[in-house]
Specification:
499 residues; alpha+beta; 7-stranded mixed beta sheet; 23 strands; globular; binds adenosine-5'-diphosphate
Length: 499
C-alpha cells in the first residue's frame, strides 16, 4: 500500500495535537485535546505526565478517525514539543515520580542565582549558548532530585530523565527507547552544543548523575515503531524536535540568514546561523536548529514578550478595538501615527535590551491624537520589537539576512506584515500552511524514512501564500526607526531613575 501521509504529534503547553499532512505538505486534518495546568504555588507550573500521554494518544486516534485515512498509509510520525519541561520516571515501571515541571515554572530561580554567585554563568553560556535561567531543564531536574532524594537510585540507573519528546518516545515507541534529539537537549543547560554531548562539568555543577540522561540523537532519525496498541499497526516514529526548531524547519529556512518569526501572544524569532557555533554578542540565545546525519545547524533565538498581547491590551483594557482583527481597519483609517510611539514594555523589555524594570509608555501624543493613531502605534510596536531582534541577529551572524518567514495568529494582519517588511527592509513571506511547527516535524520524519531524499526536496512541502516586499523609502524608514529607538531609550531611562 502507498505510504503517502506524514503525521506530527505537536505536544504544546496547553494542548496535545496531532496533524496529518500529505507528502506534498498539504494539511488533511488536525485534532487537539486540552489538559489541566497545575499551579501548586505562586510562580510554579506543573503538568500531569499521564494527562500529556493520554491526550497525545487520543488526539492521534481522533485525527485518524476524522480524516478516515487508513493508518497503514502513514509513512512516518514526528514528535514536536513544548521545550524544557522536565519529567523523571522509573526505568522499570515507567511510573513518573512527580508531576512534570513546566518551562514557565520559576521554582528554581534561587538555584540559578546560586550558579551565578558561584561564577558559573559564563561557562554555561559558552558551552550551551543559553543565558542561565530557571526556564531551562537543568535546575528543574536538580530540584526534582533534591526534593525526591533520588540521586542514589539515579546513580544506580533506576531512573530516566526526559523532556516531553523523550517521555513520549519512551511511552509510545516499542521497546521503550530512552532518547532525546539535539534540539531538545540544547535546552537543558546540561548539553554542550559544540561537542554535541552531555557535559561533565555542567552535570557536576547541578549534581546530575549521568546514568539518568537519554541518548542524544539526530532530529530526523528513525527511533523505532509506534506501539501496535495505539493505531493497530506499526509506524516508524522518525523525528523529534523542540517546537520553535520544528517551525524553523517547517518554514524551510535551510540557509544561513533565513529567519522565521511567529506572531502569537509573544513573538518567537529564530534565524539559521549556519553550521558554525557563534555566541551572541547581543543578548540572544544560540541553539541547535536541528541535527541531521550527526551534523548540527545552529540558530539564534530571541523573543518579544508583548506581541499579539499588545493588541489584546488595546482590546481588553483600553477597549480601542472590539476584536483583534479590527485593529487593521482602525490602524489604516489614518495615514500614519503622527509621531506617536507605543512601547509595550508591560513586563519589561527582552533582547536586545534586557531590562526587567522597563514599563509601557506612549510617546509623542498631541491634542489631535486619537484611538486610530494609538492602535496603529500598537501594531507598529510589534514590528519594531521584531526589527530589533532581526537586526541583532544579523549583527551576530555577520551577514545580511535574506528573508523573514512568518506564522502565528497576528500574521493575518496585512498592515502589520507590510509595515514589518518596510521596517526591516527585507521580504516577508507568509506560507500557505501556517501550522509550521507540525509541518516541520512531519517533513523531518519524511526525510528520515525516504519520502524525501534531501533537504531541497523537503522544501517542496513549503509554499508561499503571500509575499510582502519593502516599499518604504530609506529616509522614511530611518526616521521611523530613529523615533522608536529614542522612545526605547526614554523608557530605559525612566526605569533607571531612582530619585
Ligand atoms: P498563541 O498561540 O500565542 O495563543 P496565536 O497564534 O493564536 O497566539 O495568535 C493570537 C494573537 O494574535 C493574539 O494575541 C491576538 O491579539 C493576535 N491577533 C490575532 N489576529 C490579529 C489581527 N488580525 N491583527 C493583530 N493581531 C491579531
Amino acid at each position: 500500500m502507498n505510504k503517502r501521509y506524514l503525521v506530527a504529534l505537536d505536544q504544546g503547553t496547553t494542548s496535545s495535537r496531532a496533524v496529518i499532512f500529505t507528502a506534498e505538505g498539504r494539511m488533511l486534518g488536525a485534532a487537539a485535546q486540552e489538559f489541566k495546568q497545575y499551579y501548586p504555588n505562586p510562580g510554579w507550573v506543573e503538568h500531569d505526565p499521564g494527562d500529556i500521554l493520554a491526550t497525545q494518544i487520543e488526539s492521534l486516534r481522533a485525527v485518524v478517525r476524522q480524516t478516515g485515512i487508513d493508518p497503514s498509509e502513514i509513512a512516518a510520525i514526528g514528535i514536536t514539543n513544548q521545550r524544557e519541561t522536565t519529567v523523571l520516571w522509573d526505568r522499570h515501571t515507567g511510573k513518573w515520580l512527580h508531576n512534570a515541571i513546566v518551562w514557565q515554572c520559576r521554582r528554581t530561580a534561587s538555584y540559578v542565582e546560586k550558579l551565578l554567585a558561584a561564577g558559573h554563568g559564563e561557562t554555561i553560556r559558552q558551552k550551551t549558548g543559553l543565558v542561565p535561567d530557571a526556564y531551562f531543564s537543568g535546575t528543574k531536574l536538580q530540584w526534582l532530585l533534591d526534593e525526591l532524594d533520588a540521586r542514589e537510585s539515579a546513580r544506580k540507573g533506576e531512573l530516566c530523565f526526559g523532556t516531553i519528546d523523550s517521555f513520549l518516545a519512551w511511552n509510545m515507541v516499542k521497546g521503550h527507547p530512552h532518547v532525546t534529539d539535539a534540539t531538545n537537549a540544547a535546552r537543558t543547560m546540561l548539553f554542550n552544543i559544540h561537542t554535541q554531548e552531555w557535559d561533565d562539568e555542567l552535570l557536576e555543577m547541578m549534581d546530575i548523575p549521568r546514568q539518568l540522561l537519554p541518548e542524544v540523537i539526530d532530529s530526523s532519525h528513525v527511533i523505532g515503531m509506534l506501539d501496535d496498541d495505539i493505531l493497530g499497526v506499526p509506524i516508524p516514529v522518525a523525528a523529534m524536535a523542540g517546537d520553535q526548531h520544528a517551525s524553523l524547519f517547517g518554514q524551510a529556512c535551510f540557509e544561513k540568514g533565513m529567519a522565521k518569526n511567529t506572531y502569537g501572544t509573544g513573538c518567537f524569532m529564530l534565524m539559521n546561523a549556519g553550521d558554525e557555533f557563534k555566541l551572541s554578542e547581543n543578548g540572544l540565545l544560540t541553539t541547535v536548529a536541528w541535527r541531521l546525519n550527526g551534523k548540527p545547524t545552529y540558530a539564534l533565538e530571541g523573543s518579544v514578550f508583548m506581541g499579539g498581547a499588545t493588541i489584546q491590551w488595546l482590546r481588553d483594557e483600553v477597549k480601542f478595538v472590539e476584536k483583534a482583527s479590527q485593529s487593521e481597519a482602525v490602524a489604516t483609517s489614518v495615514h500614519d501615527t503622527d509621531g506617536v510611539y507605543l512601547v509595550p514594555a508591560f513586563t519589561g523589555l527582552g533582547a536586545p535590551y534586557w531590562d526587567m524594570y522597563a514599563r509601557g509608555t506612549i510617546f509623542g501624543m498631541t491634542r489631535g491624537t486619537g484611538r486610530a493613531q494609538i492602535v496603529r502605534a500598537g501594531l507598529e510596536s510589534i514590528a519594531y520589537q521584531s526589527h530589533d531582534l532581526f537586526k541583532a541577529m544579523a549583527r551576530d551572524i555577520g551577514s545580511e539576512p535574506t528573508v523573514l518567514r512568518v506564522d502565528g495568529g497576528a500574521t493575518a494582519n496585512d498592515f502589520l506584515m507590510q509595515f514589518q517588511a518596510d521596517i526591516i527592509d527585507t521580504a516577508i513571506q507568509r506560507p500557505a500552511v501556517l501550522e509550521t511547527t507540525a509541518l516541520g516535524v512531519a517533513l523531518m520524519a519524511g526525510l528520515a524514512v525516504g519520502v524525501y531524499t534531501n533537504l531541497e526536496e523537503t522544501a517542496s512541502g513549503w509554499h508561499v501564500e503571500k509575499q510582502f516586499l519593502p516599499e518604504m523609502d530609506a529616509a522614511e524608514r530611518k526616521e521611523k526607526v530613529r523615533g522608536w529607538k529614542r522612545a526605547v531609550r526614554a523608557v530605559l531611562a525612566w526605569a533607571k531613575d531612582e530619585d
